[in-house]
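Consider the record:
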Amino acid sequence: MGQIIEQLALDKGHEIVACYNSKNPFNENTLVNADVAIEFSSPHLAVPHIQLCIDRGIPVVTGTTGWYDQYDIIKSACLMKNGALFTATNFSLGVNLFFEMSKRLAKLMNNQPYSIGIEEIHHTEKKDAPSGTAITLAECVLGESRTLNKWHLQTGDHQETSSQNHSLPIIAKRLPGVPGTHILTFDGEVDTIRLEHEAKSRLGFASGALLAAEWIYGKTGVYGMRDLLNFEN
């Protein structure tokens, strides 16, 4: 992701002032001043990375998932220091359209005889399961459902029914070379309805992250893709 974002930024005329990785880790000693930082790392690194940017007054865009149990703490720190933070579990325009369609479909399916399930497939290097995108998708469904109030990670490949314990099951698979596929299924006795998003490469994620970095520059506050895309209008 970092390499793709770097090339896209250079193609658009931006200057890359520093790149960080395992050989050149991001910390107080290596940090340089920048207009904005784009952070894609690991769940255990994201929070200190974001916090350091906030402390130094650098707007930060993060696409790392798996750290959202600390989101409220980071949000409070950002607002207290009048910083700028843009978070998204997925920066793809197509995925965010997929989220909006999923909300609409979930609302339409209330009181209909269908069970609901989510399946996500990613590359074997992805650390967290389910993916942040799958969790966001689940939250989209739960926000519209009258019967489901939580989600759970399912073990096994045979899709459970969502009627069990009022919980939405998520299947997480890891296969070589898969950028990301997410499937929302409504399964009934006489038919099945599926809404699916399949990423063909990481280019869509990188493009969205760079767009978010351009958008957040000069702003303060905590934002996400709905702010950037402005679906309401």
In short: The beta strands are 37-39, 60-62, 84-87, 115-122, 150-153, 167-174, 181-187, 192-198, 221-223. The first strand starts at residue 37 and ends at 39. The chain has two domains: 2-91+202-229, 93-198.
